[in-house]
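Subject: Re: docking follow-up (2-acetamido-2-deoxy-beta-D-glucopyranose)

Dear J.,

Thanks for your patience while I sorted out the input files. As discussed at Tuesday's group meeting, I've set up the holo structure prediction with 2-acetamido-2-deoxy-beta-D-glucopyranose included as the bound ligand rather than trying to dock it afterwards. The sequence and the ligand SMILES I used are pasted below, so you can double-check that they match what you have on your end before we go further.
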Amino acid sequence: MMAGRREGSLMRDKAQSFRGSRIVTAIVLGILLGCIFAFLFPHGFLSSYPPIQNRRFGKSDLQISSSQCESTERTTALKSDIASLSDKNDELKKEVQELTEKLRLSEQEKDHAHEQFSVLGKPHKAGPFGTVKGLRTNPAVVPDESVNPRLAKILEEVAVQKELIVALANSNVKSMLEVWFTSIKKVGITNYLVVGLDDEIEEFCKANDVPVYKRDPDERFDSIGKTGGNHAVSGLKFRILREFLQLGYSVLLSDVDIVYLQNPFNHLYRDSDVESMTDGHNNYTAYGFNDVFDEPSMGWARYAHTMRIWVYNSGFFYIRPTLPAIELLDRVAERLSRPEKAWDQAVFNEELFFPSHPGYNGLHASKRTMDFYLFMNSKVLFKTVRKDANLKKLKPVILHVNYHPDKLPRMQAIMDFYVHGKQDALEPFPDGSQW
Ligand SMILES: *[C@@H]1O[C@H](CO)[C@@H](O)[C@H](O)[C@H]1NC(C)=O
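The structure tokens for the complex came back this morning:
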């Protein structure tokens, strides 16, 4: 701010002295031109003597070219002044943006703390109508560095405000990983970490200046990490994530088939145990709706109302270091370790959403669905957004190529469209995969 004020007065001084010198130049030029014309046209402008006219042109050419030269120099100087000032202006704007973001974060924290205090404090009466709020922002666990001192050290360096993006990768997904971290770097995100599942990926990350963490050898899961397909690795991630939460960090878990277009940390609410992107494609499917089931034989009661919501995407979610969040990870990991085949995303959603019932204690975790236009899945992009002139102008925070098997070319096209401004980059692809 101080810098801004100084810059402002500097600008004013410069402008004033420049205006002054322009006036002086104009007066001097006027007098000079007057003298010249008086000398060349003692009989006034209207007499026509060709040779004198020629001489007049010769002289005034000289005048014009010297003043032109001067003004070109001045224009160049001014242009560079303007350029440096607008650079400064951009810097200041960015600073203001950052400060606003910090303010928003601290307000957010204050609200959460207030909510926690009012619910967890000593017993109290319910307040007046409309003022009562349950707890959704659970308190964070006390960090326990002893679970993994080596990881704790890495996180201390990489995380920003105790949060970071984490992705698991083995060399099967190397080329996608490259697009992934290229987009992250381009946005200017620094708090991200790749959990390398084999040596090749570790080397690859190091060679590209990408923060990487390779776990200590662990017989129980290592074969999964090295040779596992997509779903097996997905199971592993719930076990690995646990340590991050135990160390007190919030994690934005990210698959590698994702392109970053803005910094996601500027678009989180942080009020829930799990804040997740959705597989839904419109307000209903993403945020939940009342789906009426019709059974005509029931006559008067033919309509049964059901609650529906498209699943959360277990490839991109923000998870806070709370007890319900850790319980969720444990429950999912435990179910995936059973012999019967299960899809981690289905298990993740069942654990999150099914209520307690006879013989079953449900998880009581708070959850929030991310804005499906900001945290966009590839169905929304290819089915809707690319065909809509207005939606096309919108810049998502991330794009997840979760609905399409030709992930790499679609990721590259997304980079071309949103980052390199290639307007027709998304056109060659069909809406869905053609098997
Ligand atoms: C979807 O919901 C948003 C707010 O959540 C609203 O602004 C928008 O108009 C809704 N769109 C439709 C098509 O209902």
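A couple of observations from a first look. Confidence is low (pLDDT under 50) at residues 1-16, 46-62. Residues 87-116 form one domain.

Let me know if you'd like me to rerun anything.

Best regards,
T.
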